[in-house]
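Notes from hallway chat w/ T.B., transcribed later so I don't forget. T.B. wanted the structure written out for a chain they're using in a teaching module, and asked if we could keep both sequence and structure tokens in one place. Agreed to drop them here.
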Amino acid sequence: MAGVVSEQSGAVALVRLNRPEVLNALNSQVMSELAEALSLADQDPKVAVLVIAGSGRAFAAGADISQMANASPKDLMELNHLALWDRIRQVQKPLIAAVHGFCLGGGLELAMCADLIVASEDARFGQPEIKIGVMPGAGGTQMLTRLVGAQRAMEMVLTGRMVGAEEAYRMGLVARLVPSGTAEAEAMVLAREIAKMPRTAARLAKEAVRRVALNGLDYAFERKNFFLLFSTADQKEGMAAFMEKRPPKFEGVEP
């Protein structure tokens, strides 16, 4: 059975983790299929926005420990499993995570690869790796600190404590909090809203926001991307439509 399944709805690609029997635990097969599916959608000119979702009772409850328990540092380096995470972080189009149920360990690291997290009220977030003798290794200490601050990240990482969806929303980890059972549907609504925007502008805006989130303030980079957009037909159309008081007709965007 495929560890990941993909479907397309208009300009939105939905990529779903498909191991519900193990709460979508992330093994090397799933990560390889996920990275490939996201890369293909990112390169597809018909796709404007990507959504990642889970299946069954969870988004993803973490890494597949059975695949890692007896590994040596040499084994892990040769497997190079973590390089797949770099491919996911390199997705250029807006990426949304639709989170329900458990979102733990590698599951939370995967959700934080997205640009926006839409979480249902039943979602539970955590980095519990310390409880099995390790620590986050796929970006958890880095992105969690950036998103919620050093004190909250330190507490979560050092205790392994889970936080509920409402607390995660208050922390700034979650962009939208929605009723239980609606995370995927609401993420698709948000994705379709973003898909109506000019695509080059969305890609460059994402790039600029992520750059400051990861690297700190960089006004020159933002300015460069801003200037570049004045070479696009969508900029000319958008501003002309504004002045003419009519809806814009952006390239490749369905009305």
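Follow-up for T.B.: Residues 234 and 251 are 6 Å apart (CA to CA). Might be a good example for the class.
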